[in-house]
Amino acid sequence: MPVDPKTSPLWGHIVELRQRVLRSLFWLALFMGLSFPFSDHALKYLGTKAGVPLVFTTPTEAFWVTLKVSLFMGAVLGYPFVLYEIWRFVSPGLYRREKKNVLLWILGGTLFFTLGVAFSNFVALPSALRFLVGFGEKEGLQAFMSVDRTVAFELRFLFVFGLIFELPLLMALATAKGWITPEKFRKGRRWALVGNAVAASILSPTQDFLNMMIMFVPLVILYEAGILFSLWTARKGQKNVPTVSSRSRVFL
C-alpha cells in the first residue's frame, strides 16, 4: 500500500522549514518597514562620513539608496529574530546540553557581528574614506561622489567587518566539533598570516594598501583571540563529557 508523502516525517520537516523561512522573511520585512521612516537620518549619517557633499545623478537614485539603507537596517535589527527561527527549527532534534550550547553560539555570533559593525563604523570606515578622498584631493581632483555608490561602499564595509569578527567564534566552533585542535591553530600561525593577507585583499572594497591593512591587522588579532577561544572550548569540552542520563532528548 503506497504511503502518503504528506504523512512522512520528511514532509513535516519540509513544511516546518517553509514556515520558518516565511517567518524569517516576515521579520526582515517588518523591521525594514519600521526602519524606513528613520532611513533619512541614517542616510545623512552615512553621508557625513565621506567628508564631502554627496550627489545623485539620476531621478531614482535617492529613492533606491534609501531603500538600500532601510534593507540594511532591517537586516541588522531582524538578525536575532532570524537566528531564533533557525534555532526553533533545529532545537527539536537536539539534546538538552546541545540546546544550551546552540543558544550560546547564536548569542555569541550576534555579539561578534555587532562588534565588527561597530569597529568598522567608528574606526575602519572613517580611516578608509579619509585616505581615499584625501588621496584624490592631493592629486588635484575634486570629489564628485554619487550617493548610491558611496553608501553602497560603506554598507559593504560594515557588513564585511561584521563577518570578519566572527572568526574567533568559528575557530571555537571548529574545536567544539572536533575538526581541529588549538595546537594546530598555534602551529598554523604562518599559514594564517598568508591566508589573512589573501582574505584582506579579496574582502577589501578597494585594493589599496591602507584598506588592506585595515582588514589585515584585525584579522591577525582575531586569529590570536580565536586560539584563546579554541583553548577555552577544548577545556570546557573535557569537563563536560556527556553521560547516558544527559543524552535524553528534550523536544519543544
Automatic annotation (TrEMBL):
<dbReference type="GO" id="GO:0065002">
    <property type="term" value="P:intracellular protein transmembrane transport"/>
</dbReference>
<dbReference type="GO" id="GO:0009977">
    <property type="term" value="F:proton motive force dependent protein transmembrane transporter activity"/>
</dbReference>
<feature type="transmembrane region" description="Helical">
    <location>
        <begin position="102"/>
        <end position="125"/>
    </location>
</feature>
<dbReference type="GO" id="GO:0043953">
    <property type="term" value="P:protein transport by the Tat complex"/>
</dbReference>
<protein>
    <recommendedName>
        <fullName>Sec-independent protein translocase protein TatC</fullName>
    </recommendedName>
</protein>
<dbReference type="Pfam" id="PF00902">
    <property type="entry name" value="TatC"/>
</dbReference>
<keyword id="KW-0813">Transport</keyword>
<keyword id="KW-1133">Transmembrane helix</keyword>
<feature type="transmembrane region" description="Helical">
    <location>
        <begin position="155"/>
        <end position="176"/>
    </location>
</feature>
<comment type="similarity">
    <text>Belongs to the TatC family.</text>
</comment>
<keyword id="KW-1003">Cell membrane</keyword>
<keyword id="KW-0653">Protein transport</keyword>
<feature type="transmembrane region" description="Helical">
    <location>
        <begin position="21"/>
        <end position="39"/>
    </location>
</feature>
<keyword id="KW-0811">Translocation</keyword>
<comment type="subunit">
    <text>Forms a complex with TatA.</text>
</comment>
<dbReference type="InterPro" id="IPR002033">
    <property type="entry name" value="TatC"/>
</dbReference>
<keyword id="KW-0472">Membrane</keyword>
<keyword id="KW-0812">Transmembrane</keyword>
<comment type="function">
    <text>Part of the twin-arginine translocation (Tat) system that transports large folded proteins containing a characteristic twin-arginine motif in their signal peptide across membranes.</text>
</comment>
<feature type="transmembrane region" description="Helical">
    <location>
        <begin position="62"/>
        <end position="82"/>
    </location>
</feature>
<feature type="transmembrane region" description="Helical">
    <location>
        <begin position="212"/>
        <end position="232"/>
    </location>
</feature>
<dbReference type="GO" id="GO:0033281">
    <property type="term" value="C:TAT protein transport complex"/>
</dbReference>
